[in-house]
Specification:
alpha/beta, Glutaredoxin, 50% helix
């Protein structure tokens, strides 16, 4: 067998036996680094999503490492948050972990969500209250709208400030946290300039401006009124 035929044979064999992620390659942008991205992920696509999130949050991301997982079991073992998680950001490691359920159809919204988390801890540290983190990430990434009818059908929490990140819980409680958190962001954005509120919150606690800048005197009463009005 001559050399050209052998190379052709090995190439065909690799495509036949190598899984999807084996065809991935190293990819680096100004804001991200990945050792092995799926073939459908391009620099242009990452840059478009990154630019959109950075523009809203007014921050240039300090390069974050994006780790892509090939199988669900390995991904769940890495984050320990259960099967419902599609991707997760780790602020202490400056990483985004991406699971195998992230695909070409849902990548932009999910990646945008995680990039918002990245900027939240790079720029704001702990200034953004935890009960608002997931809602802000969904709002900035444009991950649809809250289901207000569904929220109105559920009992109101005693205090929305208790809705910190749902690292565990049943599917309905997890859904309520994300939906309620985004509804709170939409309420705040209606009452005051959200971008300016974020500017004010650099180095300060955002909650301290909800009363003075956004004129939200009673957060829980305002939330309940907001939900009932939709």
């Amino acid at each position: 067998m001559n050399r050209s035929v052998l190379v052709f044979f090995l190439t065909i064999l690799s495509f036949a036996t190598c899984p999807f992620f084996c065809l991935a390659a190293e990819l680096q942008t100004n804001s991200t680094y990945s050792a092995d991205v799926p073939k459908w992920v391009t620099k242009g696509r990452i840059d478009r999503t990154t630019d959109r999130i950075q523009s809203f949050m007014e921050w240039d991301i300090h390069r974050v490492t994006v780790v892509w997982y090939k199988d669900q079991a390995s991904f769940e073992k890495a984050h320990g948050l259960g099967p419902s998680v599609l991707a997760v950001s780790r602020k202490n490691e400056n990483k985004i972990l991406v699971g195998p359920k992230v695909n070409a159809d849902n990548f932009d919204k999910i990646f945008g969500h995680e990039l918002t988390h990245v900027i939240s801890y790079q720029k704001y540290k702990d200034a953004i209250p935890r009960w608002l983190e997931e809602g802000l990430a969904n709002y900035v990434a444009k991950n649809g709208n809250p289901d207000y009818k569904w929220l109105a059908s559920k009992p109101f929490p005693k205090d929305v400030r208790d809705l910190t990140h749902p690292f565990s819980g049943d599917a309905e409680s997890l859904r309520y946290h994300y939906e309620a958190s985004q509804a709170l962001v939409e309420m705040i954005a209606k009452k005051c300039d959200l971008r300016n509120l974020l500017r004010l919150s650099v180095g300060q606690k955002m909650e301290s401006y909800l009363d003075t800048y956004c004129q939200i005197k009673d957060l829980n009463a305002s939330y309940q009124k907001w939900i009932k009005s939709h």
